[in-house]
Amino acid sequence: MSNLIAIAYDDVDTAKNVVRVLGELSVEHAISLEDAVIAERRTEDGKIKLHQTTKPAAVGAAGGALWGGVIGLLFLAPFLGMAVGAAAGGAMGAATDIGVDDKFMKELGEDLQPGNAAVIVLVRDSTPDKVLPRISEFGGHVIHSSLSNEAETHLQEALSAPAPQ
User: Fold this and answer.
1) Is residue 124 part of a domain?
2) 3-class secondary structure, 34
3) Is residue 8, in this structure, part of any structural domain at all?
4) Domains in the chain: how many in total?
5) What are the phi and psi torsion angles at 135 (to 5°)?
6) Secondary structure of 91-149 as H, E, C letters
7) Overall pTM surpassing 0.85 (yes/no)
8) Rounded to the nearest 5°, which phi and psi values hold at 43?
9) How far apart are the first and last CA of the chain?
10) 43-68 confidence digits (pLDDT tens)
């Protein structure tokens, strides 16, 4: 089961840095994300802008090319199979909305002050003792989560703790 966590930050640059660190942690296998999005409340017009960090069309195209190549090998036309598979996979990936619902993320963004941003992640699995020290240096405030009350309190305490000097 995955957990949804939304953490608010004072600006979009901080949110982008948090997502970058989460990406590094993902490569290190300390966290496994199903979705990661930045919801920004713009200062100019107050509208909510979602910065998607996952690319369903690219993932679909890569998977389609792989399977198309395998099927193409069976019929002695691997490049044709890869091309057809990539096109079909890309189309399916673009048509599929995976992860957190966009409407829900925009509703969360409405609670932000202009200029603020929130990182909204769908976490499949994590190693908190490796993740928390890396993201706590950015501060932030939990605005929504599906964590237990105890786990959410622990997360907020880690985010609120003064950064080590």
Assistant:
1) yes
2) strand
3) yes
4) 2
5) -95, -15
6) HHHHHCCCCCCHHHHHHHHHCCCCCCEEEEEEEEEECHHHHHHHHHCCCCEEEEECCCH
7) no
8) -80, -30
9) 36
10) 888 888 888 876 444 444 445 555 55
